[in-house]
Design brief:
Blueprint lengths: L1 H11 L13 E3 L3 E6 L13 E2 L3 H9 L3 E8 H5 L5 E6 L5 H15 E8 L2 H13 L3 E6 L2 E5 L2 E6 L1 E6 L7
Parallel strand pairs: 1-4, 5-6
Antiparallel strand pairs: 2-3, 2-4, 6-10, 7-10, 8-9
Helix pairs in contact: 4-5
Length: 172
């Protein structure tokens, strides 16, 4: 469904199919599989965190349970191969953002001019700040996640967003 949505959006914005490459999967530091929870009918919760690097036997068990859907993980280095520069990368992987940045920062710094990241916790926001600032990136937009305090602890009600510019690849 997401690929069809992307195709429609690209078409509506005047892009032809030979101008873009769409891949079904999730960017990660390495190839493999991720498991995304199936959102129960009638539940308005989009923040269901995926499982990464699950052992094969456990992965099979969880997929067969019907509570998870398997998606391929595609190494970011493989996705960027053949491109001298990626103008804009959008990352929103339901809690896996800081791990992707931590594990792929060399590729990001070499290839990506701008990155926009959906954040799903204040912890992720802090980890991203540390990683990008230490690598010389410049924060251009930032809206922290909005939380609600519940008896069970803080609960993110609105995802945050960070936008970063790589000064070695993008002009000010």
């Amino acid at each position: 469904g997401h690929l069809n949505h992307a195709r429609n959006a690209l078409s509506l914005n005047g892009f032809s199919s030979d101008e873009v490459v769409l891949r079904h999967g999730i960017a990660h530091a390495k190839n493999g599989f991720a498991l995304f929870p199936v959102r129960p009918e009638g539940v308005d919760n989009w923040g269901l965190e995926p499982l990464f690097d699950c052992p094969d036997d456990k992965r099979k068990e969880l997929v067969e349970s019907g509570h998870y859907v398997e998606s391929p993980m595609i190494a970011l280095g493989d996705l960027a191969e053949g491109s001298s520069k990626i103008d804009l990368l959008h990352v929103d992987i339901q809690g896996g953002e800081s791990a992707l940045v931590r594990d792929c920062l060399p590729v990001l710094s070499e290839k990506v001019a701008y990155i926009v990241i959906g954040t799903h916790s204040r912890q992720i926001e802090g980890e991203l700040l540390d990683a990008f600032l230490n690598a010389g990136w410049q924060l251009e937009i930032e809206r922290p996640a909005i939380m609600e305090l519940r008896d069970s602890g803080p609960f993110v009600t609105v995802d945050g967003v960070q936008g970063w510019r790589n000064p070695t690849l993008a002009a000010a």
